[in-house]
Structure formats: structure tokens, C-alpha cells
Specification:
The complex is a heterodimer. Chain A is an alpha+beta fold. Chain A has one domain: Aminohydrolase, N-terminal nucleophile (Ntn) domain (Glutamine Phosphoribosylpyrophosphate, subunit 1, domain 1, 4-Layer Sandwich). Chain A contains 4 helices and 12 strands, in the order ββββββααββββααββ. In chain A, strand 3 and strand 4 form a beta hairpin. Chain B contains 7 helices and 10 strands. In chain B, strand 6 and strand 7 form a beta hairpin. Chain B starts with 19 loop residues before the first helix and ends in a 23-residue tail after the last helix. Classes of the chains: A alpha+beta, B alpha+beta.
């Protein structure tokens, strides 16, 4: 008598890739805008990027229904924080909140692979990368999603972030200028779109600086 | 003297059909420092008089942002008011989360009123000792409500509560017919004039009052001291009595760049939430 298997899954993977790169005084967060299911495309114009606070932006790939629910949760909790503390949450605080929120559902996880990017209290760029249950780390750059296996090695090659295990402790921040980082992101997505079927259509780039948040788009391969 | 027989519990009626504990709670509202509200077709302005315990302490916060489209001014037991504000904020957040749209003001005041009523019918509770002027904007327009400790609520064109509020009410009664079509700035001016009435001779300056505005295209926010002082000067609504004490006070109040009260000066940080100031 074999164990009965589930004939229905509560999860689906809508594909897509996300990238974030931190700079000395900026942070670039980017994601493609393709939403798929199986071998089909649901839409070519879905944003995976969400502004959580004035200087804090999150990009998530995975199951977009869970991503949407997660974004709403964080937005509500951020509003409560603002009521209690009379200010917006800074990026490291939001990073911890996201981690706790994900672990809260450790036994029925949000199928959401996140990168959080923004400026910390001193105005330096920061990127935090997560797994589905909230394990996170502050890094200089990261990618998540279906194209991450193609993107990450290329970023490693170009950005050479020092290991956190080295002493003396070195900064996890990339010595790139904002324009160079944006170009790198465009290059990286163009490459990923070539081989990853779930990545393509359009690239949405969000740049967080002291002056505010800027948005940019670039066309990608539609096949 | 006579009514003391039936005033021990909120659940005890008097022979005349009154609940004295509830009425005593309404008295608490009258003891608090004044709060006023007035509305036009598109804007609502809330104002309050800042009362500090002593010269050394800061004044109590009496105006709270509840959501982008709702704010509240309180009079009475400010601790009760703070707790109710927290409740209102939660209700707004939960409604937005579920329905992805702002909570209609009329619904919120009913919920608030029902919450207050519960405390008038439980022997182990006491009524909230705070009156709330709820200002909100929703699809049906601009609204100003007054919520009593009794659990009643009323909608107003303009109203004043707290100590010496009758003076403000008299002023508002004279002027209310102009409010519906008044401009935002005129509405603020009327609010300042009404506050001046409650001060009864004291100089009106931005350090003794707080003004907040919500309107079409303008989320609820408390005006900063500098802007308020500018408006007071522009409208020339300084009180007649100008004692020697008023001079250094006026100088401090008019200095827009210096922020004498740290709890209002949270603007220095980069991430100032729209919640404050």
C-alpha cells in the first residue's frame, strides 16, 4: 500500500530573474518583466520590483501570488513601524523584518526568492539576499530566480566581492560607478535571456540614490 | 450630592434613567485642553491648544495621523486617546490590506463608537475619558465627526471640544456658513482664529497650538511650527494682550529654523515618515 501523493500543489513557479548591485552611494535593483507558468507566458509586463520604503526596494522571483502576499505584509508592517517610530524603516531594519516574516512561515513557506537593495543609514548602498525561508546575508551584489545560475558566476567574475571570512574585514561594496553598474545589469540580463527561457521581454531597472528612486527600462528578447 | 448614590458602577442606572459614570467621563473631556475641527467641501482642518504640565516639560501630543486620509484630535485623557488612535490605525491598515482601498471614515467612527459603547455596559470596564474629533476624506467627501465617551457620534461642519471650547464654538457658529466653499488657507486661518478664542487673551503663536490638514490631493499631515507662525503673522491674528513675557516667546516662535521642542523636530533625519510633522 503506497503512500497517497498529493495531486495538487499549492505552489507554481512564475519564473524570472532578479539582480541587485550595491555601490558606494547607490544601489541598482533589476528584474525582468516576464511572468510564465510551465512553458507558457502569462504576461510580458509584470513588475517583480516593489518599493518597501523610501530607500529600500525589493525584487522577488518565484511564485508571484506569494510574492504579492509577502509585499502586502511588509507594507502593512512598515506602516505600523512608521506610526510607532515616526520615521521610515532603514534598509537593514527592513532586511531583518523580511527575514523574520519569511521564517514565520517556515512550515508553509512563501515561494519567493528575494533580493533587497537600498541605502543604509549612512547612505551607502547595501544588498541583502535571501532564500525562501529567510536565511539572509548582506552582500555587495546578488541574483535570484531562474536565471541566477547564469548570472551569478558572471557577477562573481566582474565584481570580485571579498569573502566575509577574510581578515581584516573588507567592505561588501562594489567599487563601480552608478552608470557602470547599470550597464553591467543590462549586459547580464541580455546574456541570461539568451539561454534561460523564463527570462526576457523587458528589463526593469530601479536605481536608489540619495536623491530618490529612478526607474529605467530596456527591451529584452521576446522568445 | 444626590447623584452619588447611583454613580459607583457604569452598569447602574439612576432613577432618572442616567448613567452617571458615562456623564462623568464626558466631564473629563471638558477638562482637557481645547481641540477644534472645521471642514470645507474639500479640506478638513484640525487644531488644538498645546498644554504642558510645567514650563520644563514638553506638551502632550493631541493630534494623531491615523492614515493618509484620516486624522484625529483628542481632548480629555490623552492616554485613552493614544490607545484609541492605535486601534484606529490598526483598523485602517487591516481594511487596506484586505480591500486595497482606504477605510471610509463613516465606517471607522461607527467602529469607534461601538467600541466606546462596550465600555458603558461592562461592570469591569470604564468608559474612555476622551472625546475624538475625527477628520477624514473618502469617496463621499470631506467629513468631521465627534466621538463621545458615551458611544455616540455626530457629524459636524465645525466643532470644538475641551476647556473654553464654548468661545471657539461661538466663533465657529458665526462663521460656519462660509466654510463649505472656503479655500484651504482660509480654513486654516479660521482654525487659528477659533483657537485664539479659547486662549482668551493669551498671545496666539505657533508654540501654543498645533494645526493639521487633510484634503483632496493632500494627505493628512501636521503643519510645522514655522509655517503656522508665518500664517499667524500673515493673518495678523495676534491677541490684543502683549505682555513682556510674550516678546521672547514670540521671538522663539518666529524663528522658523530653530525647533525648540525636540519631539516635534524629527525632521532632521533623512527618512522622515509622512506620519510626523
Amino acid at each position: 500500500m503506497t503512500k497517497q501523493q498529493a495531486n495538487w500543489s499549492p505552489y507554481d513557479n512564475n519564473g524570472g530573474s532578479c539582480v541587485a548591485i550595491a555601490g558606494a552611494d547607490y544601489c541598482v535593483i533589476a528584474a525582468d518583466t516576464r511572468m510564465s507558468t510551465g512553458y507558457n507566458i502569462l504576461t510580458r509586463e509584470y513588475s517583480k520590483i516593489c518599493k518597501l520604503a523610501d530607500k529600500c526596494v525589493m525584487a522577488s522571483s518565484g511564485f508571484q501570488a506569494d510574492v504579492k502576499a509577502l509585499q502586502k505584509q511588509l507594507a502593512a508592517r512598515h506602516l505600523i513601524y512608521q506610526h510607532q517610530h515616526n520615521k521610515q524603516m532603514n534598509c537593514p531594519a527592513m532586511a531583518q523584518l523580511l527575514s523574520n516574516t519569511l521564517y514565520y512561515k517556515r512550515f508553509f513557506p512563501y515561494y519567493s526568492f528575494n533580493v533587497l537593495g537600498g541605502l543604509d543609514n549612512e547612505g551607502k548602498g547595501c544588498v541583502f539576499t535571501y532564500d525562501a525561508v529567510g536565511s539572509y546575508e548582506k552582500v555587495g551584489y546578488s541574483s535570484q530566480g531562474s536565471g541566477s545560475t547564469l548570472i551569478m558566476p558572471f557577477l562573481d567574475n566582474q565584481l570580485k566581492s571579498p569573502s566575509p571570512l577574510l581578515l581584516p574585514v573588507q567592505d561588501a561594496v562594489t567599487p563601480l560607478v552608478e552608470a557602470e553598474a547599470v550597464n553591467l545589469v543590462k549586459t547580464v540580463f541580455a546574456s541570461a535571456s539568451e539561454r534561460d527561457i523564463y527570462t526576457g521581454d523587458k528589463l526593469e531597472i530601479v536605481v536608489v540614490t540619495a536623491d530618490g528612486i529612478r526607474r529605467e527600462y530596456m527591451e529584452l528578447r521576446k522568445d | 450630592m444626590f447623584r452619588n448614590q447611583y454613580d459607583t458602577d457604569v452598569t447602574t442606572w439612576s432613577p432618572a434613567g442616567r448613567l452617571f459614570q458615562v456623564e462623568y467621563a464626558m466631564e473629563a473631556v471638558k477638562q482637557g485642553s481645547a481641540a477644534i475641527g472645521l471642514r470645507s467641501r474639500t479640506h478638513i482642518v484640525l487644531g488644538c491648544v498645546n498644554k504642558a504640565n510645567s514650563e520644563l516639560s514638553s506638551h502632550q501630543k493631541k493630534i494623531f495621523k491615523v492614515d493618509d486620509h484620516i486624522g484625529v484630535a483628542i481632548a480629555g485623557l490623552t492616554a485613552d486617546g493614544r490607545v484609541l488612535s492605535r486601534y484606529m490605525r490598526n483598523e485602517c491598515i487591516n481594511y487596506s490590506f484586505t480591500y486595497e482601498s482606504p477605510l471610509p471614515v463613516g465606517r471607522l467612527v461607527v467602529q469607534l463608537a461601538d467600541k466606546a459603547q462596550v465600555c458603558t455596559q461592562r461592570s469591569w470596564k470604564r468608559p474612555y475619558g476622551v472625546g475624538l474629533l475625527v477628520a477624514g476624506l473618502d469617496e463621499s467627501g470631506a467629513h468631521l465627526y465627534y466621538n463621545c465617551p458615551s458611544g455616540n457620534y455626530f457629524e459636524y461642519q465645525a466643532f470644538a471640544i475641551g476647556s473654553r471650547s464654548q468661545a471657539a464654538k461661538t466663533y465657529l457658529e458665526r462663521r460656519f456658513e462660509n466654510f463649505t466653499d472656503a479655500s484651504r488657507d482660509d480654513l486654516v486661518k479660521d482654525a487659528l482664529m477659533a483657537i485664539r478664542e479659547t486662549l482668551q487673551g493669551e498671545t496666539l503663536e505657533s508654540s501654543v497650538c498645533t494645526i493639521a490638514v487633510v484634503g483632496v490631493g493632500e494627505p493628512f499631515h501636521i503643519l510645522d511650527q514655522g509655517s503656522v507662525q508665518q500664517m499667524i503673522d500673515a493673518f495678523e491674528i495676534v491677541g490684543e494682550q502683549e505682555g513682556p513675557a510674550a516678546e521672547p516667546d514670540a521671538a522663539a516662535g518666529q524663528d522658523a529654523s530653530a525647533e525648540p521642542e525636540p519631539e516635534q523636530g524629527a525632521a532632521a533625519g533623512e527618512g522622515v515618515a509622512p506620519m510626523d510633522i
